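We close this part of the discussion by returning to an individual protein. In the encoding step, the backbone of a single protein was reduced to a row of integers, each denoting a local shape. The sequence in question and its structure tokens are set out directly beneath this paragraph.
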Amino acid sequence: MKRFRIMIWAAVCLLAITSCMDGENLKGEWNNPDFSGGAPFGNNAIEETNVITIQQLLDKYPNCYEANDRNVLIEEDIQIKGRVTGNSIEGNIYKQFALQDATAGIIVCVDAGDLHGYLPEGQEVLIDLKGLYIGGYGQLPEIGMPYNGTSIGRMSNTIWQKHFKIVGNIDTEAIQPVDFATIKSDKKKAGRLVTLYNVSFTDAGKYEKVNGVDQIATFAPDDDAMKTGGAVNRTLNEQPKTTFCIRTSTYADFAAIPLPYDQETKKARKCNLTGIATRYKDTWQILIRKTSDIEILDALYQ
């Protein structure tokens, strides 16, 4: 019996060590997945042919900048390749992800949750576009399928799995954000990863009614009177109030974090904010991807 117990214990230890080597090392840190033999997601049979840049795609289909949300079927045998710049990692980007190459960015809409599980930031992706649709959701270029007739919406996960291939390795250094100030005058630059430098929130430090209770202003309080489409729009002191906002879902991990504010000086704290520059018609809507995208300049976040 004793020998049997020793054998069982040895088997358990071996299984644990093997599991660590597959995904998690002995320090509890996760390694990047190795897809050199083909990823378990997507369509590994796709061959890289007729690849055009994202900007060339947008130039081919100017409807994606229109405010009436007109979708167009892509009938050409063309592909795009880029790296993931934003995903669902902390709940602020829902059932879509941002893709960018050296020329431009675009939003890909997929009716599936937790896309960040296999599409992390920096992952290179090849997309076979033939049979998919491209359109503008309030002048924001998106790839997906028709929604309510002429609008653009999410493609099913079944369709998506047939149209993409994971290629290359994850490289977060290849998706450095650009200064928002350099693109804000051109609505056709929407979809890019950007940083806003040295900015502060208009409502930081203020108390507001949240479901009838006074509460310090947070990124996205869950109050029907304050949110539109499940998200809350916050303005910055340094940006025009009518054509710019920081948009945060009430489901984001950082939704309940107070807006950066210094209790001693009674002033909004300056910070750098990184996110995906999206648009809705004439308004820029920046989507912060994760808590670390909020960089407080004058003090650590308390």
The radius of gyration is 22 Å. Residues 1-30 have pLDDT under 50 and may be disordered. Helices lie at 2-22, 54-60, 157-163.
